[in-house]
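Z., the sequence and structure:
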Amino acid sequence: MLNGAAVKRLLKTGVRPARALVFLCLLGGLAPALANQQASPSVSSSVSPAADSQLRNALREAVNSSESFADEYDAQVWLLDMSSRLTRYIKNEQERLRFLTLVHREASRAGLQPELVLAVIQIESAFDRFAISRVGAQGYMQVMPFWKNEIGRPDDNLMNAETNLRYGCTILKHYLDREKGDFIRGLARYNGSLGRTKYPEKVLLAWERHWFVQY
């Protein structure tokens, strides 16, 4: 179970450290490799100048297509950080960046922390866009199809990433607001397990261990 100290750590909001230091730390692994290549062309490296250029271009494209970041630098820091954490689930770099841009946009639109949404997706579908549960919930955030009829949009495709994230984030925000920001009760409502704590604890633990940021 999630202990009290972990929850406090998860929910506290302190002064953000210098973003420049975080960005340099995230990119730190690139500098030695590139320096080695300049000093000795025969030395092989897992990070080539071409790959570095591709990463920068992909980041720039993702940033420019997003309307939810405060500025380009914030976007680069967040996307690079989250992309490195998401590698085990989504192997393709550009696919990861497109997905993360959508998550950030839809979470921000709904008034949610994007990292919480990532934790929910990890527990709900393990980032499988085409996941279907035994009760028929679909996609990344395991949205029940009946919601489409509830809002008069029966033709919406819940396997579409943007559609699924918009539904899921909107629903999650509704339940959290209904429970006045209580994560345990709000997440339990989202999961349909109000009164039990197993699901909320799994999400909060995933958030703390894999997605929580403080920069």
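The chain has a mean pLDDT of 78. The chain is about 60% helix and 0% strand.

Let me know what you think.
H.
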